## 1
Amino acid sequence: MEHSFPKLVCQSIRYATPKEKAQLQAELEAHIDDHTEALLAAGYDADHACQQAEEAMGDPEEVSKALNAAFPRRWWILSRLAALALVAAVLVLALSLPSPVDRIHAYYQAKYDPMAWDWHKEGLPEMVPLDLKYDLPGGNTLVIYAAGLTEAPEGYQGYTAYLRAVSYTSGPFQYSEGPAQYLTFTWAAETPLYLMPMGDSRGCRYQALYQLNNLPAGTDPVAHLDYNGTHLTIPIPLPWEEVIP
Amino acid sequence: MKKSPYPQRKKALLWGSLALVCFLAVLALTFLESAPCFTLEQAMGKAETQNAAQETRLLDSQTLDNTTFYLTGNEDVLMVIPFYGNPLVRLKKLGNDISCFDRSPNSPAQAQQPSRLWGASMSLKDTAHDRVVACVLGTTQLPEAASVTVAAALASLDSTGEEAAPAPLWIGATQVIDGPDGYDYFWLWTVLPPTDNAHHYIYSLTLFDQAGKPITTLDPEEFSWSIQGERTIS
């Protein structure tokens, strides 16, 4: 049954949301209904029982005053400010997440599955895995992890080798200049040749793709790293059996 | 637990707490990503990781305005690590500002020459004060080396693209200090006027013995990339 008392009371509550008002109204209605049912059970007639139950609730003005005190303006304002802060914080968090997630992914990919990194470069030969791994100072690691051979493209002689190298730090949130990009190579000449690699840096790891042109058939190049006191000489076993039957 | 007499307080506290958790998460991520350094040891460790260098030790420091520059080094490298007085700046910077100079010989022939003069320079643009803070540092293994003078000049290309005669800017002198890693070192700071794209600084070094007699010089042409250079003394 619909009663006028709950509506009157809820209309005069200023700082409650419509949902809160609806809840209050339902609560008051239920209370009056319970009382009405009790009066009916006691032998009152329906109209009288309903009227009696509503009157027993007291003066609507007094009740709404008491309820208004339970919904003060300060908490209404604070709850809205908190909601705004929550929306802002969620937005900022959502915007902040891609970069660290990308770093973590790039780091573990470099460490455990560097071949999964896609260079999106056409014409790359099939790569043969290598496991030339070196610990460098400062917690850095250098790995030359794959090599491939192809006949030299137009304008070059002999064969072209592709080498994939990666360097990474001791954790995804460390930063390194990327020693993998500073490799030099020798095969015929005595002076190490610096070949600028294709590179991709994520701070904690550096992926490098080197292209060594004009390689005579059957020649294995040697990679060198002379970097801040580290001096490495790394013979690279190229998969010649793949291109020379 | 006592039930709150204010239904909206529960909401405000819940939403506020969630917002705080989110902001703390953002702060933690920022902290992890930028890895700020609060102590010199942390900064040195970060610089060593960044440059894949062996452990370095503190050699010297120089404070300019609100920033202290630390010179650290080992047998192979010298690093200049800025450490900002303002902790808030420290949260954002330190990393890209670190300068690392590889002083190890880059050829077997050089390695066999124990007495060499090696120098490097760095220029830091100070846009707030419209100036450039320049540092020249170097090492030598010449036992008789006692002091060094550094001359800075402003070089420019004329309309034909030829290098015009450099205009002298500044001359400074400092003592050569005994280093713990088998070489002596020096560093010198100065403030220079800013340059535009058509001009650049060039430096020359002159090494003196105890009696003030010049031993050797390092000319601007020997500073490769205008950053580093070295001369082997036979």
## 2
Amino acid sequence: MDAVQQRQEASLVEQLRKGDPAAFETLVRTYMPMMLRVARRFMKSEEDARDAVQDAFVSAFRSIGSFHSNASLSTWLHRIVVNACLMRLRSQRRRPEEDIEAYLPRFREDGHHAQPVENWTETAETILERSELAEIVRAAIDRLPDTHREVLLLRDIEELSTDEAAQALGVTPNAVKVRLHRARQALRALLDPYMRPATT
Amino acid sequence: MKCADAITTFLADYLDGTLPPEVRADFEHHLDVCASCVAYLRTYRETIAMAAAARTELGDVPEELVQIVLAVRGR
């Protein structure tokens, strides 16, 4: 953020603290696109994503007084919408989640891979060019057990640090590391059949 | 080092660059002799890159939602 943007943001925060309705509208119109994108990644339905964004703005309106200008509004609102999504997901969790073990790599008793591992023909670059592959990846992420999916979203997609993800989830940094590795392994296993060379 | 240890215990720390030097050397020696672990490491890295590449970036912002949020603020 350059000096001009910093001054504009400081002025907006000042107006928000004074309760200026125009400032609230500026805040909503400026940051809703980012917040809705984040919510759409976390929530499995559009309705839930919109509800989470609404929760997030209500929370932001209430706590604008405690906003510290050493963070950017964008970073602050990102954390708020992530927390709103996590709370909503937690409240929706009813069934015991699926065991991730089924998606983890298998090894023989001597410690070698149970099956030879093949390279993939598809890459992250081809994902950007082929929308059906992007859809396969998103569907595979949604198949992960919730506690693992959330860690993967926070670390690999929203790019929170291990400590930040641990704080958001209320778990230890080590639990985040363990879950992230297992989530990546499970996602790798789910993608494997689609990314390998086609067999003839 | 066995494949099971390399993949289950050390892979994530290897990618984070946090393995102690002697363990890192053992891990890399294992990669020199194990094509399956090399392929696993490559596809694991690709998985992380694909998750980031596939993240939802598109989608409109419904004016209706803007109005709902502003109405909540006005209450």
